[in-house]
Specification:
Elements lengths: L1 H5 L1 E4 L5 H14 L6 E3 L1 H4 L1 H7 L2 H10 L5 E12 L9 E4 L4 E3 L11 E6 L2 E5 L2 H4 L3 E6 L10 E3 L11 H10 L3 E2 L7 E4 L5 E3 L8 E11 L18
Antiparallel strand pairs: 1-11, 2-3, 3-13, 4-12, 5-7, 6-7, 8-11, 8-13, 9-10, 9-12
Length: about 240
Amino acid sequence: MIFIRDGFAVTESVLPATLLARLKQEFTPLLANGSGGIRNVLQSSEAARIAATSGAVHNLLRSVAGGEAFVPVRGILFDKTTSPGGTNWKVPYHQDLSIAVQERPPSDVAGYETWSVKDGVVHVQPPRAILERLLTVRLHLDPCDGETGALRVLPGTHRRGRLSVHEVAQCRAEIAETVCAVPEGGAMVFRPLLLHASSPATRPDARRRVLHIEFAPVDMTLPGGIRWISGIAHP
């Protein structure tokens, strides 16, 4: 299966037109400050929760994961734009190594390291075995390509485990990157350990709004009293 080999897939049509319109409408006031995005958006947006539990998204997840069921555990809204007053940025090649949790337990838990707090949300890096089972879906509210900050990925790198800085550089030298263009209403799904990056948008008046949702298998529980920041019930 291509997804197992490459660690990512792009689907051209996922969001129904009515849900896409509702997401844009609901996100407009949330993004009015030009901050570039919102963490923990599943807690602040009903439309985001609807998207995260929609049949279309979960059918996509099942299609790449051999029928396994998933539950959303974190949502982030990104808004990259070249318009005045907006936020434009680049991200070098990296793996997504942290998960968002409710709080840090009073006692250390083996394998859970590098605790941090970002915008009031507790994050921790779990063991590789946890990261390898997670899936991320990026729902695109705008058409996205290389000129508007599309993700660039190094196919297959999710199968190499957690990579050092030297190993990341080696992968970049050995593996041809893929630019993941996604149309409006489409989606990209990938494994968090896949090496990925993005460049600043370069097209005048470009906008790239992305609802980034992380999913865990429904049977996955965390040890030592660690709890996901968001565990919306599976439909």
